[in-house]
Structure prediction request, 622 residues.
Amino acid sequence: MPKYFVYILVVIIFIQTIFSFYYSSEIINQNSQLYQSQIEYQNLKIENQNLEKKFTELTSINYLLSKQQEKSFVYVNQRINLK
Amino acid sequence: MKIPRVKTISITLTICFIFIICRFFYIQIITGAELREKALTQTYKLEKTIPSRGKIYSSDNFPLVVNITNYQLSIYKPNLNQDLNQIFTKINQIHPQFTEENTKLIELFKNNSNQKWLTFTSLFTEEEKNQLNIPGLSFEKNEKRYYPEKTLAQPILGMVAKNDQGYSIGYGGLEGYYQKQLKGKTGFTWSPQDATGKAILTKKSWNSVATDGQNLYTTINRSIQFQVETELKKGVEKYDADSGSITIMDTKTGGILAMTTFTATNSATPSATKINSISDLFEPGSIFKPLIIAIGLDSKSISPDYICDKCDQTLKIGDYTITNHDNATHPNSSLKDIIKNSDNIGMSHIISKIGLEKFLYYFQKLGLNQKTGIDLQGESRPNVKTNWPEIDLATASFGQGIVVTQAGMLQAFNTIANNGLLVKPHLLITKNNNPKQIFNSNSIKEIKSILKYSVENGVVSVMKPKNLEVCAKSGTAQIAIKGGYTDSSTIASYIGFSPCDNPKFTMIVTINNPKSSPWGSSTAAPIWFDLASKIDHLL
Prediction:
């Protein structure tokens, strides 16, 4: 077998090994990024749900009535004269 | 004879080679399919994505039902690195009342050394879950329905519970009726997993995307619904009734603005998903009379200037005698007088002029023989008799001997308010409605003036708010028992619309078995007028 052929074979095997290492680490990185994004999305969804819950609670008729009874509710009775 | 060493080695190697080939054949060919399947289950993972259920909004775009994410706690004893009592104390500090809610479970779990695992029903928030990062404790995500307005419109909204397979199913009201639209589509991902069991998402091999459920935008007016629930509760208590129901619809579109039922605490236990307005059948009584007059006018069986010349005496049909509620007679009554005095004798004479055929024709056209098709789960179908002796036709003229649901009665009466057009009651804003012409405009004009006259000159005239124009009729129906009617209880109702010419709403109030007074004019009517004056400016 000619010597240069063996050298080429060794170089090819080396490049392939490096490439497969690089490629697999790239997959792991991308996968972990995707996984983190998914978790972040779920957390944002839950945060959004909690905010919606708080907002609806504070604007519900029941809440407004309870505040009215607590006498901490101040009626807006001033008008703007647009003339 | 000595076998040469080289020969021995080559024979051994050949045998080994043959053995390896046989083994490969066995693994790859004979058990190949089974092992391939095993390998796939170890390297591939099926992940399920549960969609969020659709929300339900009121007409002012306020969410009446939203979703919240909670977590269910599980404890696995072998993984704990702290004493169980210490852990429960810590949980109770973060989630007060935890030990109180689960006293029995905790005691059993602590004392039973064979029990390694326990899941609690208490629900934890995201914040609480993050604070309880203790080995041995794990949390399972759980999406639940949350009602910002608490019990407002509860039966209309329905409820959600999990079935045997763990899927959320809607029961009753809108949740039950629109289950398919609200539930969404579960997503699945079939992908390889890494050594830690996490899916390798970049190498996704099969994916079906999850779709969240559709949101429902309803015609329910939050403020009106609140007023209706408050007034009905007060009314049922004030008149010492068993229960009551109120339904209000938009006259033009048929959109339900409010619908509620209230059952007195000392009466039957109210069901969380039963809507009396669509499920309970009742004999409408005198609130049915305006429809008979409208049928008479529209079919030209009677003229607007009809005078009842036989109303000076009771009416005998076979063995039965038809009388008025006060046992009085009203000679030479006009249509206005017949409605004002709620004259059963006059009504019986009118229906005999209409005849059975025309009566049943209009009865069917008004949709009184079938379900209204309202988009709520649990609507009952009215039973229509096939045999109509003369006495039954006469009693039908004052709403006895026929049964309807409150929604069905409102749909039929609304045709008078809506200038002869029948619109189906519905809750979804986008629901298509094809109005059908039932009565001509001249008949409607006449019946509206009769109703207005009866409100302004009848017993309810003192209750009517001065600034409100009302066309309405009261009714008091006896409750049917086996073979007759009971004298001890009635169904009192009041039905009408306001204003008369271009109505904004049509409302029906039904009070079951009021003990303070049996009459619709003195129980259901005051509630109707109170509500009408309160909701008039909200529309």
